[in-house]
């Protein structure tokens, strides 16, 4: 069982939202069905022709048949809510391992050559002989929210569901966590995933320890500085008293000499 984190930067357009399906459309050299932002050339035309053409509004492409129709509908509503709130895209792809290209290339081509938004997320589930690989891809500035640490935490949490063949629960949790991270980031909150899969406020222990050490160092510095100044002041006063005593002794000797001279 493998888990992977991959970051994918794509430049794509937006479409409306509709119900999920696995319907694909034929691509031909006369009708490649790519977004207007894609430049077609000899290097990518074969990839385009071999990439599934889909309705980008469907969002869930369950080619591995992991979800029931009812489960797709339930997840789709949560995806739609995320898209409405964030203006980002969220795409779920499940696929049997019948492709000759890498998961990275598959997901890149699927997202790039269909009409998805410029910024968004892809959750790609690759089934291999009843085993699975799960990948999370980001596009555009989304990585500012979904950092490598957060992506790792998301995959670590949802992989337990896939291990138990609870595919709906895994995909559903993925969508909910992704949405929760977006809401928290919008509020400027520092958050993490707990054991129940909830996105909660996190305590920055490392930062707190560093801050505590810094404060302790500053306090110790000023205490030592104060102690040094007090010691310096004490020595200065003691030295002044010695000088005064010395002056008085000198005056006494001078007076004594004068008396002796008079005699």
Describe, in plain words, how this protein is organized in 3D:
By secondary structure, the chain is of the alpha/beta class. The protein has a single domain (2-201), classed as Roll (Diaminopimelate Epimerase, Chain A, domain 1). It contains six helices and seven strands; from the N terminus they run βαβαβαββααββα. It has helices at residues 45-49, 69-86, 103-112, 148-163, 167-187, 205-262; strands at 2-5, 60-62, 89-96, 120-128, 131-139, 191-193, 199-201. The strands form two sheets. Strands 1-5-4-3-2 form a five-stranded mixed sheet, with helices on both faces. Helix 2 links the parallel strand 2 (60-62) and strand 3. It is rod-shaped.
Overall mean pLDDT score?
82
CATH topology: Diaminopimelate Epimerase, Chain A, domain 1
Major sheet: order of its strands? 1-5-4-3-2
Largest sheet: 5 strands, mixed
Strand content: 5-15%
Number of helical elements: 6
Structural class determined from secondary elements: alpha/beta
Integer-rounded radius of gyration: 36 Å
What best-fitting shape do the alpha-carbon axes yield?
Answer: rod-shaped
Order of helix and strand elements from N to C terminus: EHEHEHEEHHEEH
Q: What's the quaternary structure here?
A: single chain
**Second rung of CATH, namely the architecture:** Roll
The span between the termini is 116 Å
**Poorly predicted regions:** 1-5, 7-18
